[in-house]
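>> received
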Amino acid sequence: MEIEARLEDVRQRIARAAEKSGRRPGDVALVAVSKTFDAEAIQPVIDAGQRVFGENRVQEAQGKWPALKEKTPGIELHLIGPLQSNKAADAVALFDVVQSVDREKIARVLAEECEKQARSLRFYVQVNTGLEPQKAGIDPRETLAFVTLCRDELKLPIEGLMCIPPAEENPGPHFALLAKLARECGLKKLSMGMSGDFETAVEFGATSVRVGSAIFGAR
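>> returned
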């Protein structure tokens, strides 16, 4: 299957999952995860009308996205991987959305960089719903306090929550937990679901899904 056909298949599956749960297909944004793929592989997806993309690493994104964004106006680039504070300035300069805010130190640095660069980004707090020691994300029990800190003290525009459930577990309870936490925080956006479980995520209220291999193929 060609990459354009895979993209269309994912779009149709999102639409069916949305309709199944009584939602409109337009309520769910597709973030095409282009990590590890070069500009040549990404261009056909742009040509097929996709405008929202996700990358895991700042340095990798810097090597391909400035030229792609210049060539095609209207692209929205999301950072979906962990961010180190020494890369915050570069991230603020390149990305439009950072989905992986997960600790006070990085939140403070991002707030400072946005002010310094006069850039208005949007942010998500990453929640470690499975409490996995090797995975980034804030403890679910600390989510409300952390979101409050980011919004009230740091004036960081948090618009939603993001999670990556444990690979070996049923993702449903994790998606349900994220949705519950978002309601408690007064947030309307939920970034959850990847190639293997995005339809389930849509049924649990995802407003964006992060899909890579189902579009670009195996890495």
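>> DSSP finds ten helices and eight strands in the chain.
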